[in-house]
Write a structure and sequence with these properties.
The protein has 8 helices and 9 strands. The protein is of the alpha/beta class. The strands form 3 sheets. It has a 4-stranded antiparallel β-sheet. Strands 4-3-5 form a 3-stranded parallel β-sheet, sandwiched between helices. Strands 2-6 form a two-stranded antiparallel sheet. Strand 3, helix 3 and strand 4 form a beta-alpha-beta unit. Helix 2 crosses helix 8. About 30% of the residues are buried.
């Protein structure tokens, strides 16, 4: 087991063992226990009562965080020439098509989100081995495959994130920065949790939201009382 650092132990001492914090309390506490010298990200982990191996219990969706993620999201717009101006005006960091497809083929993936058009998806198929493992493959369900390229780019830039339950039934997402006010962290977390609740599969039985943890980069997790968010 890795040895705990002095700063980590100090952060851990500020969290009451076995206590379930309300979402409002946890949003304040996550700021208190952050000890990095940089503006750490605030993350949430929600364990759901689903079996993601079953297609009818897969939970996946998108949500626009009211206060954004605090992160400068790098967007690549893979579009035809007639859509380039629209993508650039919306704030895309990289815009083009064939030259970027070639760069990706050679291993370049220095972006956070790729937005494209239905007509271009056929060209992206062969690049699935590069984009898939990095979570970069555009998907109509997440709004990143669309003819409304400008709108999609603007939404991603303003705080729209997509999420997907992992094989352990947990949804992980970045919901802000430690520099955010506690209320903004709470409201962003609440927005994501409500989106998850709305997506509850009819096949899911028993307790749906099993546990919620808030943490910042390298900090210990803070257990949140699920009753405080329902």
């Amino acid at each position: 087991m890795a040895k705990l650092t002095k700063k980590y132990k100090e952060a851990l001492s500020k969290i009451e063992a076995d206590k379930l914090y309300s979402l409002a309390e946890g949003s304040k506490k996550v700021k208190e226990v952050s000890f990095t010298k940089f503006d750490a990200s605030v993350d949430i982990a929600v364990r759901l009562g689903v079996d993601p191996r079953k297609a009818n219990q897969m939970v996946r969706g998108v949500v626009t965080l009211p206060h954004g993620t605090g992160k400068d999201v790098r967007v690549l717009a893979l579009v035809t020439p007639d859509k380039e101006a629209e993508a650039k005006a919306a704030g895309a960091d990289h815009v083009g098509l064939d030259e970027y497809l070639e760069k990706i083929k050679n291993g370049w993936t220095d972006v956070d989100v790729i937005v494209t058009m239905p007509a271009v998806m056929g060209k992206l198929g062969p690049l699935g081995r590069v984009l898939g493992p990095r979570g970069l493959m555009p998907n109509p369900k997440s709004g990143t495959v669309t003819m409304e390229v400008g709108k999609a780019v603007a939404e991603v830039k303003s705080g729209k994130i997509d999420f997907k339950v992992d094989k352990y039934g947990i949804v992980h997402a970045g919901i802000g920065k430690v520099s955010f006010d506690a209320d903004k962290i709470r409201e962003n977390a609440q927005e994501l949790i409500q989106a998850l609740i709305k997506l509850k599969p009819t096949a899911a039985k028993g307790t749906y939201v099993k546990s919620i943890y808030l943490s910042s980069t390298m900090s210990p997790g803070i257990a949140i009382d699920t009753k405080s968010v329902n």
